[in-house]
């Protein structure tokens, strides 16, 4: 009697959860810790299977029924529902007593699984493969693909294990970049290359795989899908091209060079003329004079409000450059404030031809060309 009391006291004081059941899991005895953990489900006559998670119930029941009667314990982990209605993993050890249908089991809360870390590389790799646009390919020592997975294979439409079973050097015999990348890694070399294959732009790193003795047993390739990056780069370049074409149109509109008479061109300028614009004007006007064989170039400043000293110097240099090309530069439509800026430079303006407006400038060109034509005719008559 004293022994039974001592045993009961021991079981109630035991920090572990203790059950006695039959082969079907029906409880015949449970200690105080079991009652605290599972409440009424730990009562005599209840089935322990009622507390087991539905997904674990089949394996739990199979273990319970195959317990040997030689007294050896079997250990496993299952999820059981506690008094709070939540499932928790328990590590248990169960033993069937010799020549007895009773099964004695001790349960302890299982330690929580640690988060993926350097000690759990497979889970880290799985997280990367499932969430990033990459793929990993594993080759054996003969170059045959034994594993090929990654999110980029799915998003590109190729599917997981797309390369599985293929001999990569042979499959890409006509692609020297991929072939040399795989063969180089199998020789023990690190290879990096970017290649377009199967409609996808891949950035690849191929490295040899070695055993603990340093012997090459295959190769591993990490591939990044760069197609989206390429598309974004191309879109950006297309936008830049459009902007450059628009800027070219604007430049042509802001300094249009017109042939208003035979061998007479005019450049009407509007707005603010800064040094950069004056430099573009010089380049465009000199090129047009050469292309058209112009004798006169009229630079009309009627629409120009402000000219800084540097710009005025550019205009004077432009007139000098025109003379070197055998053409005459004529400035028309100078406003009073622009005239003051030009004078303040202290430059020699004696050889600069100016007219009040564009009409007067064109009239001057026509008179001079008419006079030149008469002079040429007179010389011809004398000859």
Automatic annotation (TrEMBL):
Residues 254-382 form the STAS domain. SMART domains: PAS. Pfam families: PAS_4, STAS. Keywords: Phosphoprotein. Gene3D superfamilies: PAS domain, STAS domain. It comes from the Bacteria. InterPro entries: Bact_StressResp_Reg, PAS, PAS-like_dom_sf, PAS_4, STAS_dom, STAS_dom_sf. This is PAS domain-containing protein. It comes from Polyangium jinanense.
């Amino acid at each position: 009697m004293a022994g039974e009391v001592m045993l009961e006291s021991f079981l109630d004081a035991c920090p572990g959860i203790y059950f006695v059941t039959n082969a079907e899991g029906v409880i015949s005895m449970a200690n105080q810790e079991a009652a605290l953990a599972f409440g009424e489900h730990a009562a005599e006559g209840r089935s322990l299977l009622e507390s087991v998670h539905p997904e674990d119930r089949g394996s739990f029941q199979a273990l319970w029924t195959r317990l040997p009667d030689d007294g050896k314990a079997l250990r496993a982990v299952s999820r059981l529902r506690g008094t709070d209605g939540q499932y928790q993993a328990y590590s248990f050890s169960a033993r069937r007593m010799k020549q007895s249908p009773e099964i004695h089991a001790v349960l302890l809360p299982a330690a929580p699984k640690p988060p993926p870390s350097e000690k759990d590389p497979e889970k880290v790799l799985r997280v990367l493969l499932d969430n990033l646009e990459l793929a990993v390919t594993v080759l054996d020592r003969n170059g045959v693909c034994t594993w090929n997975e990654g999110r980029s294979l799915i998003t590109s439409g190729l599917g997981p294990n797309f390369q599985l079973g293929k001999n990569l050097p042979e499959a890409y015999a006509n692609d020297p970049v991929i072939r040399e990348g795989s063969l180089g890694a199998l020789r023990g070399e690190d290879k990096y290359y970017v290649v377009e294959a199967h409609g996808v732009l891949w950035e690849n790193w191929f490295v040899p795989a070695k055993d603990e003795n340093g012997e090459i047993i295959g190769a591993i390739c990490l591939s990044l899908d760069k197609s989206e990056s390429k598309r974004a780069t191309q879109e950006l370049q297309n936008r830049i091209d459009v902007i450059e074409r628009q800027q070219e149109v604007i430049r042509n509109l802001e300094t249009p060079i017109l042939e208003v008479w035979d061998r007479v061109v005019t450049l009407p300028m509007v707005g603010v003329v800064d040094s950069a614009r004056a430099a573009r004007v010089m380049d465009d006007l000199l090129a047009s004079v050469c292309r058209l064989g112009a004798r006169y170039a009229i630079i009309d400043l009627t629409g120009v409000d402000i000219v800084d000293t540097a710009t005025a110097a550019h205009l004077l240099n432009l007139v000098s450059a025109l003379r070197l090309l055998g053409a005459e530069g004529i400035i028309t439509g100078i406003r009073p404030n622009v005239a003051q800026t030009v004078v303040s430079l202290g430059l020699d303006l004696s050889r600069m031809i100016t007219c009040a407006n564009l009409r007067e400038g064109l009239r001057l060109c026509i008179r001079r060309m008419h006079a030149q034509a008469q002079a040429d005719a007179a010389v011809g008559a004398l000859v």
